[in-house]
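Progress note, sequence design subtask.
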C-alpha cells in the first residue's frame, strides 16, 4: 500500500526519518512526507482560483505549527513556518490533571500522580472535561472510587468552569503567540496581509484558542474546513498529484529549521537557513583544523 504521510512542520530530520520508518514497519510504501499545515492548505486551496495569503494555525495533541502561505491558481508556496514540538492538547489535559490531583492531595493527603491506575482515569476525565468546556461554561467531574485507604474508598466530585480552565492554561495560551509572530516576521508580512486563517487540529476547538487567534490576527478564523479532517484531505490531494490523477498543482515547501554543520569551537555554521524553499542545494568548502 502506497501512502503520503504528514508530520508536524517543525519536525527535524530524525523525527521525519523515524515517521517514515514507522510507515515502512506498518507495511506502507511512504511516497512522500509532507508538513501538516501545507497539507491543510492543499485541502483549503484546491480548486480555488484567486490568490490569497493564508495563515495555518495547527494545534494538535502534542505539537503546534504555524505556516504562512500564498495560495492561488494551483500554486502553494510556503513563505514561512514556525512552531513548538512540545505544545498541544495533552499539555492542556495535564493542567486539569495536576489541578485535580493537587486538590485531592490537599484534602486527603494522597498523591494520585503516583498511582498509575488513578492517573489514567484522571487523564481520561481531564480530556473529556476539556472537550465539554468547548461548548459548555462549566462541567461536572465525577470520579468515584478513585482510590481507597483504611478508612474506605475515596471519590472526586467537583466542578470545573471554563474560566478556571483558561486560568490553569494561561501560560500555554501565551506560548501560542510567539510562533505566530515569528512566522509573520519571517514571511515579512503584517497581520493586514493575511486574507484567511485556517484552524487545524482538535485543540483549536478550545474557545480561548480561537479568541487568541482572533486577537492576534484581527479576524475570525475560516470555518469552512473541518480541523480534524483537513490534513488528511490535503494528503489525499498530494497522493493524487503523485499518482497522476491531479494535475496543475505546484507545491513549494520550506525547510523549517536551519541546516548546517558543527565547526571549530562547537559553533554551528549555517549552510541552508530556515524557511529556504525546497528543494535546494548549497555547497561550502571547509578545511580540517
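Output:
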Amino acid at each position: 500500500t502506497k501512502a503520503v504521510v504528514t508530520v508536524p512542520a517543525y519536525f527535524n530530520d530524525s523525527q521525519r526519518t523515524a515517521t517514515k520508518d514507522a510507515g515502512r514497519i506498518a507495511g506502507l510504501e511512504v511516497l512522500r512526507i509532507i508538513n501538516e499545515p501545507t497539507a491543510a492548505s492543499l485541502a483549503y486551496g484546491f480548486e480555488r482560483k484567486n490568490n490569497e495569503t493564508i495563515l495555518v494555525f495547527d494545534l494538535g495533541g502534542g505539537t503546534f505549527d504555524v505556516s504562512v502561505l500564498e495560495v492561488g491558481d494551483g500554486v502553494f508556496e510556503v513563505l514561512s513556518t514556525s512552531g513548538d514540538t512540545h505544545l498541544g492538547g495533552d499539555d492542556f489535559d495535564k493542567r486539569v490533571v495536576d489541578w485535580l490531583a493537587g486538590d485531592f492531595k490537599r484534602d486527603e493527603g494522597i498523591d494520585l500522580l503516583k498511582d498509575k491506575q488513578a492517573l489514567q482515569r484522571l487523564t481520561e476525565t481531564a480530556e473529556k472535561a476539556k472537550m465539554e468546556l468547548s461548548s459548555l461554561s462549566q462541567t461536572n467531574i465525577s470520579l468515584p472510587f478513585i482510590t481507597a485507604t483504611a478508612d474506605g474508598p475515596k471519590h472526586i466530585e467537583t466542578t470545573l468552569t471554563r474560566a478556571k480552565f483558561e486560568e490553569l492554561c494561561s501560560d500555554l495560551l501565551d506560548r501560542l503567540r510567539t510562533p505566530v509572530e515569528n512566522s509573520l516576521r519571517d514571511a515579512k508580512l503584517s497581520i493586514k496581509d493575511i486574507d484567511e486563517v485556517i484552524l487545524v487540529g482538535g485543540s483549536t476547538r478550545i474557545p480561548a484558542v480561537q479568541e487568541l487567534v482572533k486577537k492576534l490576527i484581527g479576524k475570525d478564523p475560516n470555518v469552512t474546513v473541518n480541523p480534524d479532517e483537513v490534513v488528511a484531505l490535503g494528503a489525499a490531494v498530494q497522493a493524487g498529484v503523485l499518482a497522476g490523477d491531479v494535475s496543475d498543482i505546484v507545491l513549494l515547501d520550506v525547510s523549517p529549521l536551519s541546516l548546517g554543520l558543527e565547526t571549530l569551537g562547537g559553533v554551528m555554521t549555517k549552510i541552508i537557513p530556515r524557511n529556504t524553499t525546497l528543494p535546494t542545494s548549497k555547497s561550502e568548502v571547509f578545511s580540517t583544523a
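The domain at 2-86+176-253 is CATH 3.30.420.40 (Nucleotidyltransferase; domain 5). Work on this subtask will continue into the next period as scheduled.
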